[in-house]
Design brief:
Length: 313
Amino acid sequence: MQHDFDISVSDANAGKTMRAAINAALQSLASNNSGVGNPAITYAYQFKVDTSVSPAVMYMRNSANTLWVRWATIDATTGVLTIDKAVDSSKTKVSSTDSTSGYLNEKLLAGDGITLTKGNTGANETYTVSFTGTGVPTGAIIAFPIATAPNGYLACDGSAVSRTTYADLFAFLGTMYGVGDGSTTFNLPNYKGMFLRGWANGSSNDPDRSSRTDRGDGTVGDNIGTRQDSINYRHTHTASSSSSSVTSASGSGGFGWVYPQTVVTSGATDWGYGPAGISISASTTTTTTTTVYASGGNETRPINVNVLYCIKY
């Protein structure tokens, strides 16, 4: 029973009528305002029980007296009271359009790629949630361990693709990686054989960022999508050396009159015949050969494995 005892009614304070109104109000309080519909006059923290469904649903008026908050069900036969949130959180009401309060004022609203299909209504209202999308945002770059792009993705190979067929991706990328034919197509980023690098955005982690080259639309420098050629970090090499030397000599010698001596037979001093002396000159030539050995291959690279970079369209 739901009843409103309103003393503003003209005959509510008149003897028998007032007594009947008080009795009805007491009976309403005793039955927790059970019945169908809502009391016309409401108060903060007021209770009501909706008996139009089974099990009956118990509501309480919120503190601002602005809405009814469902908080329990009650079995009229057994008297079992089940608190929605405290006992069974799965009873949270879901709705994509209902603007009224749900169970404990909780709702699930359908978003992009989500479909809500309504099932039974009332105290056991249900919705089936299905996903029409993958949850991956358009433009996301993902590496796959296969040779062809899976459904929903395009290989990052620099090719020109349709602006209408891939309208979402075109809206996301525009022509930053190339204008395609200038009207009906646009270019995908080309990551074939390349490593991806985090955008420096002014950081010295990319010391040559200002010299990065065209990404496809003429943009260069420290910007998303710009490129760098391979290069080796400045370094030193070890070397080995060997040397050889050759010594050459030349000289002169013989006999002649080289000093005075006494000739015994005549008793006079005269020049004798003896060694004339030896003269030697020498020179040394040294040759040094230094060899710097080549190392490395055709590029600078870490240990790696091939993957297919793809973009979500």
